[in-house]
Amino acid sequence: MLAGIVTVAALPGAGRTQTSNGGNESALTIRADTQRANSQTGVITAEGNVRIAYPARDIQATAAQAKYYRDKRRLVLSGGVYVLQEGNSLRAERVTYSVDRDHLVAESAQKQQVQATYVLPKQSQAQQ
Question: What is the pLDDT of residues 7-26, one digit of tens each?
Fold first, then answer.
């Protein structure tokens, strides 16, 4: 089955995402087996083998399902979520990411925990 691809910045009314330095605009790309967009609610739903790419923040993610809320500029990933950013990784059942605030909240499934792996700078780099 061919994967559906949506580039959020390219959708009418989806808004644009700016890099942290206020520079060039960037797109958040969603790939999935199926996708639905509701222009009235501003919600994009992606299901099945969801893959997210957000180069402006060096974020890649996979999940069973994703919902992007245009008006709130919020992305909610669910079902075996894996997020990779600059070598740091996160595994959770549900992840909510606020694009404007660059803020992420990870939640575990019942009787499980969120797993995060952080790449720490070498001590000589941290002291500089």
Answer: 554 343 443 333 333 433 57
Task: Report d(CA 35, CA 66) in Å as an integer.
Answer: 9
CA 107 to chain centre: 14
CB 89 within 8 A of CB 79: no
Q: Is 18 helix (H, G, I), strand (E, B) or coil?
A: strand
47-87 residue pLDDT tens: 999 999 999 889 999 999 999 999 999 999 999 999 999 99
Q: What CATH superfamily classification does 4-126 receive? A: Lipopolysaccharide (LPS) transport protein A like domain (2.60.450.10)
